[in-house]
């Protein structure tokens, strides 16, 4: 059956190539549009190449450590995971920076044509992620026949993901905060106004953060959940069925996702309903596929119930995230209303919305854990994580669509394409904000289940039958683990703050010193702002990445039980903080857009300026610290699993 999995993986890559060709055939528009898009693409690819050149030193160092201390096969698997994750991110970046200008041009014809181009480009990214991820895991199992070795593949993917997510997040938010605070609040000019020096850096940031970063994030979630289920399958079943089942579920999920993409079309103005339609179709198909697969392979439907508990909990988390972050619902609107009395009340309300939004995701994950364990034991919990991520081919496409639509709206504004085109592009962009928030919620929810599966794998590999919570070393580990998300968030938030401070001063300087800039008679120095974001991101991403790897190793060398306690602490605290920060940031962003759409005085009003301040607080919440935390909890868990031989 492994042959079928490999064939489906290759099919996903073929479908990605087909859509890439389809996207590239679309018209790029005017010469001015092409010039703006070329600046964005050059900046994005330059940053990605520099980021990879920094990460290569870390990859080589870890490869050598694994080669000499753990095992040669582990080092090869680690390298494969890092390379494939980087390739997936590179593919996503290239198609997104080519699709943005084509989406802007397509929107000038109709909303549905713009949706088609943007969503197709997102599907290229998603199919590359699931295709390369499943292919990598399957081929390595074919070679090594030992799922434990393949954990190092997940380690490689996780390492790339953390650097990509943190680096991309710092880059994009430094530019975004600088552009908004000076452009919107101080100068009163529209978002993406070509007079604003930070606009190109801002649009570049959308790609490096929400395309390359999110793609690497979900690549490692996807492969980690499959690998953890494979490892537990060895201990649960006689024969290979327990190992092959998660691979087959992932493969059928790809087929369900491909079919679901054909339903993402709209004849009216509601692009969100089109996205939801595709999600529901792929989810329904996956339930049917899982039923027949598990009945055929296992002969018992208990694991089917475990699978759909994860799948449905993912949908619930997505819908809850949509409710708390969408401008169409009360939570985001209440933040907008709070802007009537200033930025302080806006921020207070946003924090409250973010905190209360944790309830449904936590309960959904708890129900999924309870049901999956009831029906399938610890293996059932791992299968639930695979089930939740099985339709990643569609959910990631919906998420990656967001930055493409955002760039398209920016190009429409900068190229002066007119109110009609800009409003259509902004309608796609507003949906993109919601799909991005849903994608982050989905990634965080899956991270909780995946981290739990990895934790169970750790206890088995380490030979821990139980962890004594009364032990002082375990309690110490628990507190250290609980502390890690706070330290990690503080480092990344402060990094954005420092970079944004430099960006704000640069934008102010250009408005002051470049004569005729405000009048539109002179061009700003876009490259200087791109350089500021690039330098800050590359400099600041190193410490958080090293922290996630070094701390588990240090604690594990001291006491293996303490390491178990640490993994529990970081998973619980990290999950809650990630949901809180991501949802609060998404709600702040859409509260601002709710006002910009004409409510409460619209653009330029005191309420709008207050909402922009709230959004600048939410930017690093939702695009830097929050989504990076779900990688942190998985990376620390997988480091613990891979380095167990050293600890024992």
Textual characterization of the structure:
By secondary structure, this protein is an all-alpha fold. The chain has one domain. 86% of the residues lie in helices and 0% in strands. It contains 20 helices and no strands. The chain starts with a helix and ends with a helix.
What is the typical, i.e. mean, pLDDT? 88
Alpha plus pi helix count: 20
Secondary-structure element pattern, one letter each: HHHHHHHHHHHHHHHHHHHH
Measured on Cα atoms, how large is the radius of gyration?
A: 23 Å
Number of domains: 1
The helix-and-strand class reads mainly alpha
- Bin the strand percentage: under 5%
Helix content: over 70%
> In angstroms, what separates the terminal alpha carbons?
36 Å
Task: Indicate the overall shape.
Answer: globular
Q: Which regions contain 5 or more consecutive residues with pLDDT less than 50?
A: none
Q: Main sheet, how many strands, which sense, barrel?
A: none
- Number of separate strands: 0
């Amino acid at each position: 059956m492994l042959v079928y999995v490999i064939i489906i993986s290759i099919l996903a890559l073929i479908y990605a190539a087909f859509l890439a060709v389809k996207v590239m055939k679309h018209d790029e528009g005017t010469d001015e549009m092409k010039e703006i898009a070329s600046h964005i693409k050059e900046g994005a690819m330059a940053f990605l190449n520099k980021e990879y050149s920094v990460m290569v030193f870390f990859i080589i160092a870890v490869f050598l450590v694994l080669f000499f201390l753990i095992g040669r096969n582990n080092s090869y698997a680690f390298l494969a995971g890092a390379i494939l994750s980087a390739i997936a991110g590179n593919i996503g970046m290239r198609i997104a920076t080519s699709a943005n200008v084509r989406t802007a041009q397509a929107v000038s014809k109709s909303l549905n044509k713009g949706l088609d181009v943007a969503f197709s480009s997102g599907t290229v990214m998603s199919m590359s992620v699931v295709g390369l991820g499943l292919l990598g895991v399957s081929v390595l199992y074919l070679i090594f026949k030992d799922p434990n070795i393949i954990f190092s593949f997940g380690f490689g993917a996780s390492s790339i993901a953390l650097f990509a997510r943190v680096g991309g997040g710092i880059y994009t938010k430094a530019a975004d905060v600088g552009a908004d605070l000076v452009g919107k609040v101080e100068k009163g000019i529209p978002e993406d106004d070509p007079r604003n020096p930070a606009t190109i850096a801002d649009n570049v940031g959308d790609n490096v953060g929400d395309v390359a970063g999110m793609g690497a994030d979900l690549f490692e979630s996807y492969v980690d959940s499959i690998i953890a289920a494979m490892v537990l399958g060895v201990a649960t079943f006689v024969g290979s069925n327990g190992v092959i089942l998660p691979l087959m579920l992932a493969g059928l999920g790809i087929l369900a996702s491909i079919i679901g993409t054909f339903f993402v079309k709209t004849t009216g103005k509601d692009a969100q309903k089109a996205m939801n339609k595709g999600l529901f179709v792929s989810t329904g198909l996956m339930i049917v596929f899982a039923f027949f697969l598990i009945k055929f392979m296992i002969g018992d439907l208990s694991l089917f119930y475990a699978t759909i508990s994860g799948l449905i909990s993912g949908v619930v988390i997505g819908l809850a995230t949509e409710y708390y972050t969408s401008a169409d619902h009360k939570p985001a609107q209440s933040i907008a209303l709070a802007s009537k009395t200033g930025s302080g009340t806006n921020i207070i309300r946003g924090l409250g919305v973010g905190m209360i939004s944790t309830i449904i995701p936590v309960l959904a994950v708890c129900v999924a854990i309870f049901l999956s364990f009831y029906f399938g034991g610890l293996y059932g919990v791992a299968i639930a994580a695979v089930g939740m991520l099985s339709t990643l081919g569609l959910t990631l496409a919906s998420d990656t669509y967001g930055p493409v639509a955002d760039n398209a709206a920016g190009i429409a504004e900068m190229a002066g394409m007119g109110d009609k085109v800009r409003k259509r592009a902004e309608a796609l962009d507003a949906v993109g904000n919601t799909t991005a928030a849903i994608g982050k919620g989905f990634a965080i929810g899956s991270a909780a289940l995946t981290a739990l599966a990895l934790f169970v794998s750790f206890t088995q590999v380490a030979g821990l039958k139980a962890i004594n919570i009364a032990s002082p070393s375990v309690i110490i580990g628990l507190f250290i683990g609980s502390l890690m998300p706070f330290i990690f968030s503080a480092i990344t938030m402060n990094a954005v703050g420092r970079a944004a401070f430099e960006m704000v001063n640069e934008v102010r300087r250009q408005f002051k010193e470049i004569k005729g800039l405000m009048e539109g008679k002179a061009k700003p120095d876009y490259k200087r702002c791109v350089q500021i974001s690039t330098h800050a991101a590359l400099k600041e991403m190193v410490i958080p990445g090293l922290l996630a790897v070094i701390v588990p190793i240090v604690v594990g060398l001291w006491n293996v039980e303490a390491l178990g306690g640490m993994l529990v602490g970081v998973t619980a605290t990290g999950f809650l903080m990630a949901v809180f920060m991501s949802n609060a940031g998404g709600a702040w962003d859409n509260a601002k857009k709710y006002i910009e759409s004409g409510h409460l005085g619209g653009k330029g009003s005191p309420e709008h300026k207050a909402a922009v301040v709230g959004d600048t607080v939410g930017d690093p919440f939702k695009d830097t610290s929050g989504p990076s935390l779900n990688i942190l909890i998985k990376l620390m868990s997988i480091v613990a699993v891979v380095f167990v031989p050293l600890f024992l």
